[in-house]
Amino acid sequence: MCLGVIQHTPDPAHTFSCLANCVRPGGELAIDVYAARLRSLLSWKCFLRPVTKRMDSRKLYKLIERITPALVPVSEFLSRVLGRFGSRLLPIVHYPALEPSPEVARQRAVLDTFDMYSPAHDHPQSIATVKGWFDAVGFIDVTVGYGPNGIVVRGRRPPAHP
Fold first, then answer.
1. What digits encode the pLDDT tens for the residues 115-134?
2. pLDDT by residue (tens digit) across 13-60?
3. Contact 44, 122 (CB under 8 A)
4. What does pTM read for this prediction?
5. What is d(CA 15, CA 130) in angstroms, rounded to the nearest whole number?
6. C-alpha span between 103 and 111 (Å, rounded)
7. In the 8-state DSSP scheme, what is residue 160?
8. What is the CATH class of 2-37+124-156?
9. Cα 61 to chain center, whole Å?
């Protein structure tokens, strides 16, 4: 299982191939990667990452740690009023419904926002591309679709023949 990592490597296709080679015959591999979609191109990440990925990571984290908690209540309000669209109006990542408490949701918002802006590499993929990775290494029973974090794919290496 490899969730939220492959798109942050310099060559996601090569990274996937290396992971696939580690799967034993009959074993399964599940991944998720950011989706290359129009709404991704219109996100805060697209506008801010060219600057934030070059910042000293400690300074970036401290900045996010200061700003994000102040934006969390605004994000919650916008989400209540405008639904999912409202949560995308601010430059933070905040999913309060997924967390057991408001404090955990605030901490997670800081970490997820840092994760969005800090990586040196960020290579969203299309469903066709990711499905092609599984096909290229001969995996079977491949399922692919959109999940909460982007594209979710699962496949199985064929069993070894005696």
1. 999 999 999 999 999 999 99
2. 999 999 999 999 999 999 999 998 877 767 888 899 999 999 999 999
3. no
4. 0.80
5. 12
6. 13
7. P
8. alpha beta
9. 18
